[in-house]
Design goal:
By secondary structure, the chain is an alpha+beta fold. The protein has 18 helices and 23 strands. The chain binds 6-diazenyl-5-OXO-L-norleucine. Pathway: Sulfur metabolism; glutathione metabolism.
């Protein structure tokens, strides 16, 4: 842990969009932490202009759609959790939905084979985008006019922004797939390779954003933009229709809340599994003495791994869009059920996913990026938003100039067939028209004595709930600083495959103890990109941007 912190201090910052990306800020008036320095800065500028945290979140989301095209988006979807200073809470679902013409077996070919190539890239992989509907559904909670909130994104698309080395390399590495999956020339491909210092200009995207500024959500879901999306679908064999776009609605959900020790956790309910998994995992470890062995001890890590295994077994069986399937949330989160789930936990001995299946319950009476914002009044927003894979379907919506998602792969395309994150599922998450695919995204706010204490979240597919889980436990139980909680190596178990994924830098001695207990260990390069804002005892805000990428904190 110390070595990690030292490396970060030595590096101190990265540069993106020509801006120095600060990793840690302490501030009193407001903080934004996101995956890109320009997006954090744009959100901060809105706070300085008198916007609240929701306003700043809308600007940050829209700016990410321009400067972070791999995951920031208007062609994808996501979830927003907010806790407002007046006591109101918000859980906003702007997850993509299956098109009307989608069907359960649409990714099974004539030989019966599940075609993950169809569900993961190109036109057929796209769900109906939710982000713009989400931003307009959030807007009544803000203060400033929408046209002011979207203008920074328009300017950055119109005038361009300067690429750094990793951004240029990402575009170059995806060039062939871009060419394969697009039917018109796109801003992301040019005749010579991109290099650091080049400016990426997105004129078509700027025009789309201007239509949204001038016509509201209809500037996306109807008229010219909708026509471009549907024309692209027709050219490439996708399913999204004008009616799918016209009828798409973001949904306010009842926020998922549960206590952990003396804290209150506010997080996303279905159709994200993330919040429920987080609650299950925290409750499964809360009273177990192994936790007292402390941070990175084999005993505590084993306990957390076994909680992760059991929660993910439940995910595969029970969880899906609550408008289509009844998810037994109350039972799955009940102390009695979760105590039962841990009865066969044996300290010092690996469990087995063959023996541990989803729990038995009685019938009951349901590439991604994360950012956090807090303003001077204590309004907090936590948003995770995604195209699913890096650049989503890698298909631009024709002249509309933005990447469409490949979120359909988050459905269970065939029982037992893993999606791109290795997650499997059954009927609860099978494809149906208009259904929202199960997510793992876990935007979260933790309160202490009813007041904001921590805002947290991360990208990373199925590793999202386990990373948020570890971040909370690292801070609350192991007393790590927010800098360390963000940057220490994470570990991950998702029931199947029955293995523990260890992030680079995970302590060798703990890994050796876990191997001795019988765990199969897999070494991974990098897990997630956790962003955190912690409200300190003196009332100041500490924003910590993940040290793994170009992420940046901004505050004043
Ligand atoms: O909703 C989900 O769970 C996934 N579509 C998230 C994808 C993701 O985090 C990719 N980023 N690393």
């Amino acid at each position: 842990m110390k070595r990690h912190t030292l490396i970060l201090l030595l590096l101190g910052f990265t540069v993106s969009g020509g801006l120095r990306a600060q990793k840690v800020v302490t501030a009193t008036h407001g903080v934004v932490v996101s995956a890109h320095a320009l997006a954090s800065q744009a959100g901060l500028d809105i706070l300085k202009k008198g916007g609240n945290a929701v306003d700043a979140a809308i600007t940050t989301e829209l700016t990410l759609a321009v400067v972070f095209p791999g995951a920031g988006n208007i062609g994808g979807g996501g979830f927003m959790i907010a806790h407002l200073a007046d006591g109101r809470s918000l859980a906003l679902d702007f997850r993509e939905a299956a098109p009307e013409k989608a069907s359960r077996d649409m990714y099974i070919d004539s030989t019966g084979k599940a075609r993950t190539d169809w569900s993961q890239t190109g036109h057929l992989a796209c769900g109906v985008p939710g982000t713009i509907a989400g931003m307009f559904a959030a807007h009544p909670y803000g203060r400033l006019p929408f046209r002011e909130l979207i203008q920074p994104a328009i300017d950055l698309a119109e005038n361009g922004f300067v690429l750094n080395e990793s951004e240029a390399a990402n575009l170059n590495n995806t060039r062939e797939t871009f060419l394969k999956n697009n039917t018109v020339p796109i801003a992301f491909v040019r005749d010579r390779p991109w290099k650091a210092g080049d400016t990426l200009v997105q004129k078509d995207l700027a025009a789309t954003l201007r239509r949204i500024r001038d016509k509201g959500a209809k500037g996306f879901y109807e008229g010219e933009t909708a026509a471009y999306i549907v024309a692209e679908m027709h050219r490439g064999g996708g399913l999204i229709s004008l009616e799918d776009l016209r009828s798409y609605k973001a949904k306010e959900r009842a926020i998922l809340t549960f206590p952990y020790r003396s804290y209150t956790v506010l997080t996303m309910p279905m159709p994200s599994s993330g919040g429920l998994l987080l609650g299950q995992m925290l409750k499964m470890i809360e009273h177990n003495p192994a936790l007292a062995q402390g941070y990175a001890s084999a005993a505590a890590d084993q306990l957390m791994i076994e909680a992760e295994r059991r929660a993910f077994a439940d995910r595969a069986t029970f969880m899906g869009d609550p408008d289509f399937v009844k998810v037994p949330v109350v039972t799955l989160l009940s102390d009695k059920y979760l105590q039962g789930r841990m009865q066969d936990f044996t300290p010092g001995k690996a469990g087995s996913s063959q023996n541990i299946q989803a729990g038995v319950i009685a019938p009951e009476s349901t590439e991604t990026t994360h950012f956090d914002v807090i303003d001077k009044d204590g309004n907090c927003v936590s948003v995770t938003t995604t195209l699913n894979g890096w650049y989503g379907s890698k298909t631009v919506a024709g002249k509309a100039g933005f990447f469409l998602n490949n979120e359909m792969d988050d459905f269970s395309i065939k029982p037992g067939v893993p999606n791109m994150f290795g997650a499997i599922g059954g009927t609860a998450n099978a494809i149906q028209p208009h259904k929202r695919m199960l997510s793992s995204m876990t935007p979260t706010i933790v309160l202490r004595d009813g007041k904001p204490f921590l805002i947290a979240g991360t990208p990373g597919g199925t590793t999202i709930p386990t990373s948020v889980f570890q971040t909370i436990v690292d801070i609350i139980d192991f007393h790590l600083s927010p800098e360390d909680a963000v940057n220490v190596p994470k570990f991950h178990h998702q029931w199947l495959p029955d293995e523990v994924d260890l992030e680079k830098g995970f302590p060798d001695t703990t890994a050796a103890s876990l191997a001795q207990m019988g765990y199969t260990l897999k070494h991974w390069g990098r897990i997630g990109a956790t962003e955190v804002i912690m409200i300190q005892p003196d009332g100041t805000y500490k924003g910590v941007a993940d040290g793994r990428g170009n992420d940046a904190a901004a505050g004043y």
